[in-house]
TrEMBL record:
Alphabetical list of Gene3D superfamilies matching this protein: 2-enoyl-CoA Hydratase, Chain A, domain 1, Lyase 2-enoyl-coa Hydratase, Chain A, domain 2
InterPro entries named among the record's database cross-references: ClpP/crotonase-like_dom_sf, Enoyl-CoA_hydra/iso, Enoyl-CoA_hydra_C
Source organism (scientific name): Cytobacillus solani
Enzyme class: lyase
Entry-linked Pfam families: ECH_1
PANTHER family referenced in this protein's UniProt entry, alphabetically: EG:BACN32G11.4 PROTEIN (PTHR43459:SF1), ENOYL-COA HYDRATASE (PTHR43459)
Protein name per UniProt: Enoyl-CoA hydratase
NCBIfam families reported in the protein's UniProt record: PRK07659.1 (NF005804)
Domain of life: Bacteria
Lineage: Bacteria, Bacillati, Bacillota, Bacilli, Bacillales
Statement: the UniProt record of this protein carries the keyword Lyase: yes
Family from the record: Belongs to the enoyl-CoA hydratase/isomerase family.
Length: 262
């Protein structure tokens, strides 16, 4: 079975038991605006309910997986009353990825930063090109991780290392991320490595693997959902700070921010 579905920001291609979801804003390094988040949530929900698909691959079109939230549209142009809607949409994307009864793979090339990294961390496997960069860099604009970033980083790194990675916000090479335990594979040929991973999984007892995922998801989902709610509350508070406004202004002016801790 081969199915194709396209919107302006998200593309879906289903080939047999594998669904590939591609973020499609290459001109902005697949930064996540409201339209893309809504499209991604809808596509993932549809795939989650399909009995024909066992594996979902998430990737970005062009030079990057995703550079994170679209700062101009999400933080400057969006109305304040739209903020809860955006955060709820982010939560839906992440919770769907984490709980869907499929094996999920993020194929990372270029940048996976901010919300883009949080979404990648919600998948079961992260396969990254050797030249890619990963960063939980919300701190650079005076914000905190969202998309379950706190939950997933703590699960992989422990609380202490997670805190310091969030506070530093520095980009990691794929190799550094692998050594930390953030990602599962580093490769020089992403397409070939992804195909090899898919063939191995397709020849594995997938239903047993999915059942294990389901057990962990049912056990841990309440905690993830609580973290997503805390991130929503915390992000709202951070958006009111002078440091956040300075971070945004510095980003737009392409200069280093001058934070004052307020």
């Amino acid at each position: 079975m081969t199915i194709e579905f396209k919107t302006d920001t998200v593309q879906l291609h289903v080939n047999g038991r594998v669904a590939t979801v591609e973020l499609n804003r290459p001109e902005s390094l697949n930064s996540l605006n409201v339209e893309m988040l809504k499209g991604l949530a809808a596509v993932l929900k549809e795939i989650s309910q399909s009995s024909d698909v066992d594996i979902v691959v998430l990737k970005g079109k062009g030079r990057a997986f995703s550079s994170g939230g679209d700062i101009k549209t999400m933080l400057l142009e969006a109305k304040e009353e739209d903020f809860p809607i955006v955060m709820d949409c982010i939560s839906e994307v992440v919770a769907t990825l984490y709980t869907m009864p499929k094996l999920t793979i993020s194929a990372v090339t270029g940048a996976a930063a901010g919300l883009g990294l949080s979404i990648a961390l919600a998948t079961d496997y992260i396969v990254a090109d050797k030249s890619s960069k990963l960063a939980m860099n919300f701190i650079s604009i005076g914000l905190i991780p969202d998309g379950g970033g706190h939950y997933f980083l703590e699960k992989r790194l422990g609380e202490d290392r997670a805190k310091h990675l969030i506070w530093e916000g520095k980009p990691l090479s794929a190799e550094e991320a692998y050594q930390l335990g953030l990602i599962h594979d580093v490769t020089e040929g992403l397409d070939e490595a992804l195909e090899a991973k898919l063939q191995k999984l397709l020849n594995s007892p997938l239903q047993a693997m999915i059942e294990t995922k389901t057990i962990f998801a049912e056990k841990n989902s309440p905690q993830l959902l609580r973290v997503l709610e805390l991130e929503k509350e915390g992000q709202h508070k951070m958006r009111q700070t002078k440091d956040h406004q300075e971070g945004i202004q510095a980003f737009l002016e392409k200069r280093r921010p001058v934070f004052i801790g307020k």
